[in-house]
Amino acid sequence: MTTVHSPTAGRRRLRNTLRRARAEAGLTQEQVAAAMDWSLSKVIRIESGMVSISTNDLRQLLQYYHIEDPQRVAELVELARISRRRPWWTRYKDAFPPEYISYVGLEDESIAIRCYSPTGMPGLLQTEEFARAAAAASSLRTFEPSPSLPPPDLVAQVRMLRQEHVLQREHPPELTVVLDESVIRRQIGGPEVLKRQLLHLIRLSAAPNVSLRVLPFNATFVSMMSYFVILEFEDPADPAVVYAEGAFEQHVIEGSVMERHQRMFERLREAALSEADSVALIARVAREL
């Protein structure tokens, strides 16, 4: 039976399975829509993961695709049930971009998280006071009317919930982070807030599942990449994804672009200081504040 628990991950696996099943059956989306008496847009939205599919519709669709093995059908029906659940982050879907909400759902299911941050402190590493200060200091608030952005308190609340559900679960994911040195020196919220944030990083780095590295100013390798996160999953049926975040937009990326991000992350990790030297640098910066 499926090991997926997150509705986002469940919908993603089901969507990929249904796309493959249609292709193996040699059918077009138009043919499926006509045979099922659905609109074409319904087929497209199901296969893109934009909407979930009811268990009754799924059973009929599987019959049409000649998928009749009882165990296989039961597994896919369970995925459909999971994809229709309402997890904790759905309470915030109207306050945050849909790409971010999708990322939170996938993050919740991941077994490995690899993050490169050239400018800001990753949300999973932030203290609550730093999260609030970082949200308030965001350059986006200079360009966007304030009603279009979630308030700093809400941003901090969601980041703390992410940490609770990801880092504090029974089997937390392997977390590997490469931070540019500027991230540990930029005094978001002021010196005291940053100092407490840096001490928090040092405590986090002691966890066996956390690897924290700093890309120093004197590194000989330069990356022009923006912030990105690679998520990996337990089941081979769920390929890794990248969440890339720019100044004005976010994307969840799959496919061949994934491999380029993986290679780039390894280059960045190799160019960064060792874990021990990174923690020593963070401690030195904290003492200077």
How is this fold's topology laid out?
Blueprint: H1 7-24, H2 29-36, H3 40-48, H4 55-64, H5 70-83, H6 98-107, E1 112-117, H7 128-137, H8 140-143, H9 152-166, E2 174-180, H10 181-185, H11 191-205, E3 210-215, E4 227-232, E5 241-245, E6 250-253, H12 256-271, H13 275-288
Parallel strand pairs: 1-2, 2-3
Antiparallel strand pairs: 1-4, 4-5, 5-6
Largest sheet: 6 strands, mixed
Going by CATH, the homologous superfamily of the largest domain would be Endonuclease Chain A
Quick one: CATH class of the largest domain? Alpha Beta
End-to-end separation: 53 Å
Report Rg: 21 Å
Number of E-state strands: 6
Unreliable parts = none
Instruction: Give the total of domains.
Output: 2
CATH architecture of the largest domain: 2-Layer Sandwich
* Major sheet strand order: 3-2-1-4-5-6
Write down the secondary-structure element order: HHHHHHEHHHEHHEEEEHH
**Beta-strand level of the residues, as a percent range?**
5-15%
Integer average pLDDT: 89
Total number of helices: 13
In the CATH hierarchy, the third-tier topology of the largest domain is known as: Endonuclease, Chain A
Structural class: alpha/beta
Question: Which term fits the overall shape?
Answer: elongated
Share of residues in helices: 40-55%
